[in-house]
Amino acid sequence: YFGTVQVGNPPRSFRVDFDTGSANTWISSTLCSSIACLNHRRFDPSESTTFRNDGRRFLVQYGDGSSVNGQLGHDDMNIGGVTLRNQPFGLAQYESDDMDDSTIDGIMGLAFPALSAVPGVPTVLDTMVSQRLLDAPVFSFHLSRGGEDGQSTGEIIFGGIDSSRFHKPMRFATVTRPLYWQFHVDNVYLGDTSLHLSSDAVVDTGTSLIVVPNAIARQMHAHVPGSIYSRTSGWLIPCNLSGSGPDLVFEMAGGRSIVPSVDYVGPALTLTPEMCFSNIMNSDIEHWILGDTFLKNNYVMFDYGGRRIGFA
């Protein structure tokens, strides 16, 4: 999931991943010559009349092992028709090889400023609030499952919510640690079976899957019939459970948020097409990560001013 922003004067368009799991905003630049950069549209600071060099450098390392570094600059940035004046952002001078996805040209970090790789640099949300560009200090996400053409779409709203996207009252959870958008999950169910699991979790629009510690992944898959673990492919689920397997249910914020099996059963393996990848991934992490697999089924509001997360 990505969207387009304009940077500089005259404005140039770039596609960015709106990422609630990081706090730094950066764009591939003409200062970069690594192979990954060459697959992206690159910002040329010499072509913008309003660009100003910052002098500081940045380095961001992501949870998947990818990284980017470069120098900071300031310029105007237009998001959805609203212009942020003199917004700080990173000009990538190096991107690791695994960032060669030509779909996006950069990342817009929407986590809390305490997570920033450069202390004291205002995030995009900080600038929106300080320049009084929002009706309220919130933003919200709606991500779709995708249509018949296989294309997934979504919507991000800065300053409010789209109440037409949900029908149940919104429930709120307090942010437990204002680095990430982290909150507490009270219990997990697979179908009607309580797994008696609780943990802090992070809502991360920059992660595709649901990611949990190794032991938790084993416990969850033990209640999905036919699941097996492969050292080469990770957790696998029979493909015929897509749409018929038990719902994965998170009890939190005074209610329940559901992920149906059609979403946690992933794509089929090439050599054994009767088995599918699981979109519940195991990892050596402490807190859980609720990525796009979760977000496709739940409208989420991020209340930056109130330090809370709304679910509907």
Automatic annotation (TrEMBL):
Keywords: Aspartyl protease, Disulfide bond, Hydrolase, Protease, Signal
Family: Belongs to the peptidase A1 family.
Enzyme class: hydrolase
UniProt name for this protein: rhizopuspepsin
GO MF, one annotated term: aspartic-type endopeptidase activity
Reactions the enzyme catalyzes: Hydrolysis of proteins with broad specificity similar to that of pepsin A, preferring hydrophobic residues at P1 and P1'. Clots milk and activates trypsinogen. Does not cleave 4-Gln-|-His-5, but does cleave 10-His-|-Leu-11 and 12-Val-|-Glu-13 in B chain of insulin
Protein source organism: Syncephalis pseudoplumigaleata
Positions annotated as active site in the UniProt record: 19, 204
Classification via SUPFAM superfamilies: Acid proteases
GO biological-process terms attached to the record: proteolysis
InterPro entries cross-referenced by the UniProt entry: Aspartic_peptidase_A1, Aspartic_peptidase_AS, Pepsin-like_dom, PEPTIDASE_A1, Peptidase_aspartic_dom_sf
Disulfide bond annotation, renumbered to this chain: 32-37, 239-276
Pfam families registered for this protein in UniProt: Asp
Residue stretches making up the Peptidase A1 domain: 1-312
Cited PANTHER family: BETA-SITE APP-CLEAVING ENZYME, ISOFORM A-RELATED
EC number, UniProt record: 3.4.23.21
